[in-house]
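Board notes (copied after class):
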Amino acid sequence: MTPSEVDIQIGEQALSQLLDGNRRYVELRRIHPNQSDDRRNSLLGGQHPQAIILGCSDSRVPPEIIFDQGLGDLFVVRVAGNVIDDIVLASIEYAAEHLHTPLLMVLGHTNCGAVQAAMDDTELDGHLPSIAQAIEEALEAARELPGDTLNNAIRAHARITAEHLRLSEPVLSVLVRSGSLLIVSAIYDLDTGLVEILE
């Protein structure tokens, strides 16, 4: 097995651990790992999270809870509509390059208000238009698909964002090509609590 194959396997193991935690959450078998005083003290010298989660700021989608994780397990970046800009990208790059986190998940969710607002095409106040503009590419893709436009747009947005991150220069694309970073997109169902991987 080559070094890059080993790295990819580490990312896949991290993804499997997240999905196992999500199943525990859904089945009401949560174990609340890594939340003790000892765990907190063990992190004083540094952190080594197993996954980066780019998620929506929506209060109904807290990654540590829906994946049944604890202190130091996840490097979470949350912003309305799970959109990316330079600051979000810099945060992700820090975790991927400097903390050597092997997995990045773009986590959208059903009934996303940011995607709905962008889809409604109503006049938005303040800085909200910048979020709608970041989602426009997904709306264009969703209009070509059969079925529920909002659901299609939410899924398209997660996939498109993940692809932009895979191609992002100069940091993430290099890590992806070397096998050091696995990037996936996913959707959290507000009704069932399940996380579905889209790739």
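Comment from the instructor: The longest strand covers residues 103-109. Residues 3-197 form a domain with the Beta-carbonic Anhydrase; Chain A fold (CATH 3.40.1050.10).
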